[in-house]
Amino acid sequence: MSESFSFNEWESALDVPADLLADDGRGIHELKISNKLYKSKEEIEASTVAESLGDVDRALWIVNRGQPIQKLSVINNFSQLMDEYPRRALDEVLPAILNSAASSVWHQEYQTALCAFIKSILDQVPVGSPFIPAALEIAKALMKSDKEAIVQCWSTVYLACIERGLAHDTMLQMIKTAIVEGGFTQPAPCRVWCAKVLGSAVRHFSPADIQAHFLDKALSLCQDTDQEVRASMGLQLAQFARSVDSKTRHDRILPEFVDLILDEEVGVREAAVQGLSHVLDCLPVDAKRTYVIPTWTATLGDVQLAKVLAREFGVFFWHCKACMTEADMATFIKYYLDQAQATDMDVRVHCAYNMPAMVKSLGTDARLMTAISKLCNDPQVVVRHRMCLCLSVLADLLGAECYQHLRTSFFTLFGDNEHIFETLLPSLDAITRRFLADPAFQKGTDMNDFLFIVFRKIRELIAKAKWPQVHACLVQARNYAEYFDPEAVYDICIPVLTRIIYEAPRAALQDLGTQLAVQSIRRFRRLDHRDAQCRALVADLAFSSSFRYRMQYLGVCSHVLALASGKLFRTYFAHAYLALSADAVLGVRRKMVALLPSAAAAIAGAAADDPLVKKYAATVAYLRGTGVDVLDSWPAVADEDADADREREADEDAAVRDDLEDARRKDGELRRLMAGMDKDVVAAAAAAAAVGNGVSATRTTVDARGVVG
């Protein structure tokens, strides 16, 4: 049959509505997606919040009637509600958020975020707050869910409520229930849960109550037949060690720790080592010598515990170093140094993590400095990243010797890949200040070399157009004008800052570059450097054909008025600034007028017959003639800032005066040297004349300057 049959004819033939037939044709998966994407008008209106509601009322509406994805916004913005409406946020919004848990059990993302939010609130509310038992009841109800993820996240809330503290009778009843449900005939997860409840509650009971009610149960769980239970108790036993009396700790808790550390299962041993590290700060010397140090010595050769021992080594060594014999000290130091060249990357990462504790304990030990160098040159980025995070702490610990020991490591990491450089960058200013305290840093050309390397890196970032990193570098280098020699700053920093001022595409970066340039100019000791840089800024920016550069010049004037003296502004920038009153661009004129009160305060320091004063008066008259609202008087704070302005002017004059005095001193030394050379030349000429009367007919003469002719 050649006769075609259209889809519309199927509708009439089958007597089926077109929309239903279309749904059948699309397939079930496409239909589900359409139901999610295309909502009816009623569904949309049901989730639409009225614009007239206030912040708290809007939050309450969303929590009570909104979708889980909307409720997440209330959780994320709760801190802002607390700042603005503390009473209503605590009394109305917080209980509503807590009650919304039961209606959104099916939304796992919201449940996870809600549990994390509740735990953060539990850390902030005072003990005895009604929020704690309310959260406990919600957690107890939702822990009966058939979804494992929901049970896991709410069980952490349940334990957090116990750790925060409840009524004594309530907690005692909870412990009795946990002991019954965690009996030896119960499944292993029940006994694990019992261990967690006991560990969370033990800190709220006296040593007598602990020993009377549940210490024996906790110790019996340490000997459980399932390794999950023993591992759980290895972590919880630290809370018991802190809460019981010293005799019970020494006679009953620490022996259990030793047994768990020597357990046959790796997971149990790891948990016990980690738990013991959490209690080292409260153990007496005899306990460390009797239990801790021998146990650690026995486990050093356990390859399966290499990672956990490396992770906890810093805490162990810091708390036990005073109790060690010389043989123990040598053994543990050797063990730590071997970690720096271990084949396992995680062990080397933990070695780097513990380096500050070792430097704090041993000082500038040459072996530690070698280990630092190895870790900073490690082939794995993760290890070098950890050393970047530790470097500023190491600089603080090494004090006045930090540059001698960390110089090579710093430059290695600073010149590393982008990830390592960005990790090190936030601590650059702190490390620089520590280096400046080292006398070795100030000898020779080390300071200039350091400055050159930092700004060479900035030039490389500019060439790659990585402007966010350039901005971060300038933030760290904002005090370099104070740290380094002004001549080095002029030669190394100023060209880079000038390039940033001219080329940076971001106004914030240009402004920061301008600020640093002005701070540097104020500290120049050579007047020709100051003249050259100021005149270059005026010529390149104020008289540029680009209005953006002229706007940038007004930014320069703003920083000069804020950071420098009025004299510096009057000398170099005021004339070009006043000339911008007739600029063709309205934005330039507006910004110029906005700075006029501060400029007036600076110009007021000039003499009455100074041409600048007349030019200022003419500029004000011209602006008023064009209808601009001009504030002719300087701000009220200008009088208060007069002393500060005089101090800034004195600093700038002193910097140049030092240069002039140095120039005079050098000129005097040169004159004295030349005078001494003149005397030597005259004496030599006289001697030659006396000796050579018959040898030569040539007449030797000496002019007034001592030049032999």
From TrEMBL:
Protein keywords: Repeat
InterPro entries xref list: ARM-like, ARM-type_fold, HEAT_type_2, PP2A/SF3B1-like_HEAT, PPP4R4
GO cellular component: cytosol; protein serine/threonine phosphatase complex
Gene Ontology terms for molecular function: protein phosphatase regulator activity
Superkingdom as given in the UniProt entry: Eukaryota
HEAT repeat coordinates: 253-291
Keyword Repeat assigned: yes
Record-linked SUPFAM superfamilies: ARM repeat (SSF48371)
All residue ranges annotated as the Phosphatase PP2A regulatory subunit A/Splicing factor 3B subunit 1-like HEAT repeat domain in the record: 212-273
Pfam families in the cross-refs: PPP2R1A-like_HEAT (PF22646)
Record-stated family: Belongs to the phosphatase 2A regulatory subunit A family.
UniProt xrefs under PANTHER family: PROTEIN PHOSPHATASE 4 REGULATORY SUBUNIT 4 PPP4R4, SERINE_THREONINE-PROTEIN PHOSPHATASE 4 REGULATORY SUBUNIT 4
Protein name stated in the entry: Phosphatase PP2A regulatory subunit A/Splicing factor 3B subunit 1-like HEAT repeat domain-containing protein
